[in-house]
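Extended Data, panel c. Modelled sequence:
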Amino acid sequence: MSQASQNQHPSVSVEVKGLRKSFGSVEVLHGIDLNIKAREVFVIMGPSGSGKSVLLKHLIGLETPNSGDVLIDGHSIQAEDMLERYRLAMVFQSGGLLNSLTVAENVGLYLTEHRLMPQKDIDRLVTEKLEALGLKGQENRMPEALSGGMKKRVAIARALVIDPQVILYDEPTSELDPLIAVTIGQEIKRLNQENDVTSIVVTHDRDLAFGIADRIALMYDGKVLEVGTPKELQQSKNEQVQKFLNASFKF
């Protein structure tokens, strides 16, 4: 039986409808509309300051919009029972590991804090997820002893351990060398295929986006310029899309 078929919480669709957000007099998101399919690797890409991170915070319920909504399988993320109804996990840009805890303690923290299962079952699940990410035998190491790529993989293991329906990745390859960045991208794609999960990746890394995405939304100045497959974006007639995709050093 595949790992996906064992998942007790099947993946879900995510819809963004007319999302607007202002900070003071500055509007950061200008009516965002997106439809993200269940089990899709959906990449939100764009230059710095385009609104990607603000949108990501709305997708996981960390920000409240001025208008519009985010729907998980048709249900508003602002509903009181959303955390009970659906499982969403976030892989933070920095990894977000607690330096005072071991790798195993970091990965199992949510399960331990909420006493969701006996400790022996938590330990077994933590070991399983770490092994799946090539981190066998790293359970007792401290985060400060890990490389940047290993920290990212521990953070992904921590997301997987709660059996999520949606995983959101915030700049997963930032501060990584190109070879490690490719490895992390491969892990995101593999885990999406092996687990019944919807993956949403926010990045400005063009190589990552075109390497793993089923579809890409390109943002600019708080708006979605275009949504499509990597091939469709490469063939886009939109001048701003082509300017971002083909940016390079010219001397």
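The two ends are 55 Å apart (CA to CA). This feature is highlighted in the accompanying rendering.
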